[in-house]
Inverse folding.
């Protein structure tokens, strides 16, 4: 069943909307969490962040969102330095980091996406309500609008946060482990959503651990393990050599030795619109 038609994309010039990271390093206290990351990517695409636990994927996402300060280097969006959070960039944390017992309805959560546009004085108006309604419909949450977020399933919770980002009219969606803990139907729906967001001209950057599904979802990959291992298109950068460099040769082969070779690596050019990759997966914790 296809997704409902979403609001018109706010990214009307994908080629002019560039996210550029230059020599980015991030520290937590005296610990170097991320070192010398460089990339340039534009809207209308999906980028996967691949790497083991503690590799710096979440740190990079928070840096892109303006939530973590850089020790060195810079991040530019549409030519301007990112020094604080922007309405054009939406960050979706891991579900485990969210207090789902907070007394808030689905609609209330999605309405929060409009707050940055209201400022101190403007009231919630018809356009804001229409955008919230459309965002709920797009994510198939209209019938759940009055439900408490604590009563949602994992997939519904994830869709509610994406709906909030839609209501924010974000250009860039930063998703931290969006597929973790979701059942297969919820994963399939989210996969369709991510693809649709990119087709409409948005940029989606997501940390991801299921190697078998990378080519069917993403256009580009960034492999990191505290430092940048490889960055490029799936067909160029997503290969066993780079994965061994990222995860460590012994670690990578130990986790895949009892499985057949991941089909994603056997045919990395299959592309996002290919038939479903085989169920055999070389999922690596991230």
């Amino acid at each position: 069943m296809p997704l409902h038609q979403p609001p018109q994309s706010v990214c009307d010039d994908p080629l002019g909307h560039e996210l550029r990271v230059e020599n980015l390093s991030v520290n937590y206290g005296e610990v170097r969490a991320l070192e010398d990351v460089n990339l340039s990517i534009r809207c209308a695409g999906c980028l996967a962040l691949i790497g083991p636990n503690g590799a710096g994927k979440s740190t990079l996402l928070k840096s892109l969102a303006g939530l973590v300060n850089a020790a060195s280097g810079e991040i530019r969006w549409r030519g301007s330095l990112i020094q604080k959070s922007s309405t054009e960039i939406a960050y979706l944390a891991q579900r485990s980091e969210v207090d789902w017992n907070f007394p808030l309805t689905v609609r209330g959560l999605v309405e929060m996406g409009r707050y940055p546009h209201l400022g101190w004085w403007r009231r919630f108006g018809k356009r804001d309500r229409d955008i919230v309604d459309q965002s709920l419909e797009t994510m198939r949450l209209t019938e759940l609008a009055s439900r408490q977020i604590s009563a949602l399933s994992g997939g519904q919770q994830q869709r509610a946060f994406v709906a909030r980002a839609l209501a924010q009219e974000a250009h860039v969606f930063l998703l931290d482990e969006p597929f973790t803990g979701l059942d297969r139907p919820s994963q399939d729906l989210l996969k369709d959503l991510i693809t649709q967001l990119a087709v409409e001209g948005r940029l989606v950057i997501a940390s991801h651990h299921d190697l078998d599904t990378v080519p069917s979802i993403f256009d580009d990959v960034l492999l990191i393990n505290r430092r940048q291992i490889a960055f490029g298109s799936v067909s160029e950068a997503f290969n066993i050599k780079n994965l061994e460099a990222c995860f460590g040769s012994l670690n990578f082969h130990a986790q895949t030795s009892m499985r057949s070779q991941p089909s994603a690596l056997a045919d990395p050019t299959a592309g996002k619109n290919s038939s479903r990759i085989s169920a055999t997966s070389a999922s690596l914790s991230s």
Q: What stands out?
A: The beta strands are 18-28, 31-42, 45-50, 72-77, 80-81, 89-92, 172-175, 203-207, 220-225, 227-233. The first strand starts at residue 18 and ends at 28. Residues 1-7, 273-286 have pLDDT under 50 and may be disordered. Residues 184-199 form the longest helix (16 residues).
